[in-house]
Amino acid sequence: MKRMLIEVNGIVQGVGFRPFIHKLVKDSGLNGWVKNSTTGVTIEVEGNYDVLINFVQDIKTKYPKLAVIEKVSYEIFDDIKGYKGFDIIKSTHSQEKFTLISPDVCICEDCLRELFDEKDRRYRFPFINCTNCGPRFSIIKDIPYDRDKTTMAKFPMCSSCEEEYKDIEDRRYHAQPDCCFECGPELFFIDESGKKTTNNAIEIARNYIKEGKIIAVKGLGGFHLVCDAENSEAVYKLRVRKKRDEKPFAIMCKDISAVEKWCMVNKDEKDLLESFRRPIVLLNKKNNLLEHVSMDNKYVGIMLPYTPVHYLLLEKDIDTVVMTSGNVSDLPIIKDNEAAVSELKDIADGFLMNNRDIHVRCDDSLMRIYNGKEYPLRRSRGYVPFPIKLNCNIQEILACGAEQKASFALSKDEYVFPSQHIGDLKNIETLEHYENQIRHFEKLFGIVPKKIACDLHPDYMSTNYAIDRGKNSNISVAMIQHHHAHMVSCMADNNLEQKVIGIVWDGTGYGIDDTIWGGEFLVGDAKEFKRHGSIMPIALPGGDKAVKEIYRVGYSLLYDSLGNIPEKFILTNDVKTIETMIDKKLNTPRASSIGRLFDGVASILDIKHKASYEGQGAVMLESLATNDDEIYNFSINKDNVISVLDWREIIRNIVEDKENGVQNGKIASKFMNTLVEAAVKISKEIKMETSITDIVLSGGVFQNMYLLDRLTKRFTAEGFNVFVHKRVSTNDEGISLGQIVIAANGGEVKCV
Amino acid sequence: MAVCGTINDICMCGGEPKYLSLSFIIEEGFKTEDLRQIVNSIKKVSEECNVIIATGDTKVVERGKGDGIYINTAGIGFLKHENLGKERIQKGDVIIVSGTMGDHGTAIMAARNNLITGIELFSDCAPLNNLAEEILSYGDKVKILRDPTRGGLATTLNEFVEGTDMTIELEEDRIPIKNSVANACEIIGLDPLYAANEGKIVAVVAEEVAERLIESMKKLPEGRDSAIIGRVTSNYPGKVIIKTQIGGNRILGKLAGAQLPRIC
Ligand SMILES: [Fe+3]
Ligand SMILES: [Mg+2]
Ligand SMILES: [Zn+2]
Ligand SMILES: [Zn+2]
């Protein structure tokens, strides 16, 4: 007889772990107890040595589907306490507060079956859940994960539910959000006149959708705006009311066969769509039937239902709806009922909501599949707050991220916890959400940052936050170069530590020479980097104005390449002013940015002149591109030490092609092929000089699949190893991971 | 301009400007005609403001060693209102401006560079002694005043609340901005709230006197566009925010230098 004390770390709470242990114990005949601790689950059992060892082995291999086992450690003692039977005992509060928390999980197969089973007592119950599914992160206020620390605290369980909750054999054993018609939250509908209806709320909502109306629906992490996606009039109405002219909407399809009506879906995409995380997956359109949902774009973002309410809404004759986040332009997604009614009253005709509070807002995630792997564009619901695991332990650091796609990250031991999607920090509402979430994460994971990492840009709100917080709490603040952070983010994403070539192409980021970068060829690791190459700076008359009014960039490219702006490329009457601004460098910063080059080319090709959402020019170029292999001539100049791609010849060739009537699709293709060849040429130079053959690709420009794919294939053919993102986003959302790893290695530009 | 600047600085501290020093550094070859024009305008302004040019100096530098002319002024006056300061700003106070914002900075950029044709832009350079006197007649109801020169309204307001528990909340549609300035800023890509002003006052005053004060300021020619543009709250400590027409409250941050692109 021996006694064994086992500690299991990972996502082991709220995923049916203790019942699983109970079952294992019953089969093996061991005695003792199990409890949730703030660091995971602790088990003490007594029995025969071999049985104990087998027991540990079973924990490691047979754990429940939603559990993620990070570590199982155990000690064996000779003294016996003489337990009789096996108990689940109350959670303890230990000093070191640290446990992994589960993301929100879509409804499981068992619950789904019960939902539509007339004989089940939860037949059509909108809040059905069990230990394998349901809300988690969005309702948890504090740990350990117990009902009274969630927004379910205000719903005392009825006796039937309590019985299930206490029955170790039951699927709902210790399912914290468990409830039923009798004791659970209530679904209701509020119409245009403010009238609340509790009966038939689903039927009313379905009728609204069928009539072409717009409704706001409370989901897991916030409200959605919903309308019939096949009704173009309804979709246009939503565009007008939401002031969202051209940006694609995400849609929700009843099932895979509905998805296949609109899009091509391969095996990996199907698996991702159906995974318990239920992200929006960006898919290739099969036809133009959803042009009003996602225009001038060959992709559309689709997700499958993930809550019982979604399944009840998308029944029978409703199979595809627009499901876009319920917010007012650029503000955080709305999560509270009162706010929904007051803020969305001009957008939604009715509201389908309930009285279960959302504690943490969390937007839908946006993913795509590249080469059979997940390629994140927005890592949020279903993923957060699960950590990214590193190869080594690092100190506790807070990384403040960037600005427009703000997200932060916290680290502890070998984990980095990136936050959910936060949004654009220019508004105080978003900044508040950002600051609140930093505090919430610090509390949940018991992290007290010893160092703060932020971007080098002096005007980012996140930089201001970092510096203020550093000053007030006397913590040192590491300022990190934007593209270095992108590069190291992709390295950490792939667990690389060696020196690499980082090709980082994005919109704009603050360089160490106080100019704006964005077409970078860096060489280095988390400790240091060197800028080996970039592109010739592009004048941006009007600064950020030129990022929105991209014809300004078009003018600027033409002016620099040809010395004048040819008559037929002049679209506006501010052209003289813009020329003067460029000549005299008036509010005309320069940016070595590939993103801006795309903008300018989109305007020169007369595809887009004012972007109604960021990156629109690039998205449209990608969508138009044919599969040509031709390239334009280009030259790379040595400017002091760095190799600089001179785009003027490319622009001149584009103008010539355009004048000769070459199709835009072919020009777009040639343009991107040229960037690929230029990247290959510069990288080969670097390889000659440094013998480095590992390349990481990061930055928002690599949301472009044409470019990413061509680049990857060319580099592979040239003998390079190419690494792309797979766990965090390639855009600015992902840089907080890089910031943490750089700060941990002392790779910051300066420390304040 | 130089003279106005010094007079205004004294006014903004609650002082009554009395004596000015005036020094010229003139490059050899500078036109006497231009010099005469400058001296005349100084004379005019100082007489209007009841200020005596008490002392001064003139230096001539070799051709090519100066940039035409440099004028340096310093001034002293009597302190009349001791109770001005950001520590007196309280929740509930309101923010007033004495006229349209961004005129000077925009005019300078547009005019110096022949940037914009067909848009009339005037610099608003003017002495503020009368306006300041009017405002200061409200005694301790006036918390602070400033001429929002470099960095414009946004920078000045940030200085008011920086490091305090106070928030300044502005309403975009209440801030007076000339159409021509708004249009020019639109084209150049400048934010008029960060563009320099000359001859404008921004003040924080107690709410109960604000309406009356605006009425009396409007009676002065240099204050005819006066307006209440926002109020002091404690919602977001240390921040200046602006309620925009499209919804949402944009943060008017302190900018480190030139407005560099932030969009990635
Ligand atoms: Fe970036
Ligand atoms: Mg001054
Ligand atoms: Zn379930
Ligand atoms: Zn119940």
TrEMBL record, chain A:
Domain Acylphosphatase-like per the UniProt entry, residue ranges: 3-90
Catalytic residues of the enzyme: R18, N36
Gene Ontology MF term list: acylphosphatase activity; carboxyl- or carbamoyltransferase activity; double-stranded RNA binding; ligase activity; zinc ion binding
EC number: 6.2.-.-
Reaction it catalyzes: C-terminal L-cysteinyl-[HypE protein] + carbamoyl phosphate + ATP + H2O = C-terminal S-carboxamide-L-cysteinyl-[HypE protein] + AMP + phosphate + diphosphate + H(+); an acyl phosphate + H2O = a carboxylate + phosphate + H(+)
Protein's pathway: Protein modification; [NiFe] hydrogenase maturation
Domain YrdC-like: 199-382
Enzyme class: ligase
InterPro entries to which the protein is assigned, alphabetical: Acylphosphatase-like_dom, Acylphosphatase-like_dom_sf, Acylphosphatase_CS, ATPase_NBD, Carbamoyltrans_HypF-like, Carbamoyltransferase_HypF, DHBP_synth_RibB-like_a/b_dom, HypF_C
Keyword tags: Hydrolase, Ligase, Metal-binding, Zinc, Zinc-finger
Coiled-coil residue spans: none
GO BP, sorted A to Z: protein maturation
Source species, domain of life: Bacteria
Family: Belongs to the acylphosphatase family. Belongs to the carbamoyltransferase HypF family.
Name this polypeptide is given: Carbamoyltransferase
TrEMBL record, chain B:
Gene3D superfamilies: PurM-like C-terminal domain (3.90.650.10), PurM-like, N-terminal domain (3.30.1330.10)
Superkingdom field: Bacteria
Family note: Belongs to the HypE family.
Gene Ontology annotations of biological process type: protein maturation
Organism of provenance: Fervidicella metallireducens AeB
PurM-like N-terminal domain mapped to chain residues: 2-78
Cleavable signal peptide: none
Domain called PurM-like C-terminal: residue spans: 90-241
Identification of the protein by name: Hydrogenase
InterPro entries membership: HypE, PurM-like_C_dom, PurM-like_C_sf, PurM-like_N, PurM-like_N_sf
